[in-house]
Amino acid sequence: MFGFNNYIVPFAHLHICTFAYSSTFEQNLIKIKMQPIKTALCSFGMSGWVFHAPFIDAHPGFEFIAVYERTSNHAEKKYPDVKTYRSLEAMLAVESIELVIVNTPNYTHFTFAKACLEAGKHVIVEKPFTLNVDEADTLISLASKQNKKLSVFQNRRWDSDFQTVQDVVQKKLLGNIVEVEFHFDRFKEDLSPKAHKEVPGPGTGLLYDLGSHLIDQALQLFGMPLRVFADVSIVRSVSKVEDYMELLLFYGSSMRVRLKASYQVKEMLPSYILHGSNGSFIKSRADIQEANLQAKISPLSPNWGIEPDEAKGLLHVGTAGDDTRGYIPSYQGNYMVFYDGIYRAIRAGGVLPVTAEEGKQVIQIIEAAYKSVSSGCIVIV
Length: 381
Fold this sequence. Notes:
The chain is of the alpha/beta class. It has helices at residues 25-31, 46-58, 74-78, 88-92, 109-118, 133-146, 160-170, 195-198, 210-222, 289-294, 336-348, 356-375; strands spanning 37-41, 62-68, 83-85, 99-102, 122-126, 150-153, 177-183, 227-233, 244-251, 255-262, 272-276, 279-283, 313-319, 322-328, 379-380. The chain has 2 domains: 12-20 and 156-334 and 363-380, Dihydrodipicolinate Reductase, domain 2, CATH 3.30.360.10; 34-153, NAD(P)-binding Rossmann-like Domain (Rossmann fold). The strands form 2 sheets. The chain has a 9-stranded mixed beta sheet. A 6-stranded parallel beta sheet has the order 3-2-1-4-5-6, sandwiched between helices. The chain is globular, with a radius of gyration of 21 Å. The relative contact order is 0.18.
């Protein structure tokens, strides 16, 4: 795997448990009688039918009742109890709707979320949260004024691969981490059929798209960096928006985090590479949830989010004379954890699984990255 042999060494003395992670919503069902949150979607494109509808339909804490579709009726064909509205205003006028998921093009996130909050709804905004920090601050202030929950859909926190990386970091298996590299690469010769992603304009390009995931994961593990240096460009002749990005995040004098994404990578590298004073961890991007959702497999199906066995990460730690090298099992991925957290936050006052402040921090890094690109300099965050 990625040039490494398959030699496996026992890991008993490292106290690594068999990884397993699942949503707590089934446990909650036993403890409390759920009051479903009446939920609406702002669109039913890919994010609607792949990443949101299957979960709010399967989770007993939600009731999918409305969707904003301007010309189609795709949602109600699949979910007969859902009512279609031809305008956002008409949908927001429905008093019974408690939660609205803003899953529209990036440049609409601020205006749609603002309208939803003003209508007295709880709101989940797709990543990226907003286009700039000023918009993020406005929404955070409005949510507080309205006493409504405001979250950002950073689902990649619950990918199996990232959950595994997070565990390695939190257990300090690598000692003091000095160098990290995250990749989110693809090979795409053709443009996306989603026109709003391929036309130059506010919020388009790889940094706002896949970059939002990479930045959020880095901030979850290591917090906000001190400085940022960035290179963002167009590498495909067919593309009119940025399809290559590399960010270098500086954490003090001895730690660096490099985030890379490109649409012109045919031979994939490991997606997670971490080096520390006690060793290294290398892991592929192997979460199966998106592929299963696109194949219309229910998130309640057996073995949901379990990676193929060959996708285990390579952990090599220790010092001379006490060296341990082998492949470790991965956590189970489960996006349902996000929705479970949303339910508990709204119904029981629990902590949001992703806060609006965390969404704002991602935008702070994106803004710093663009300042770096325009100046050619390292930018203080």
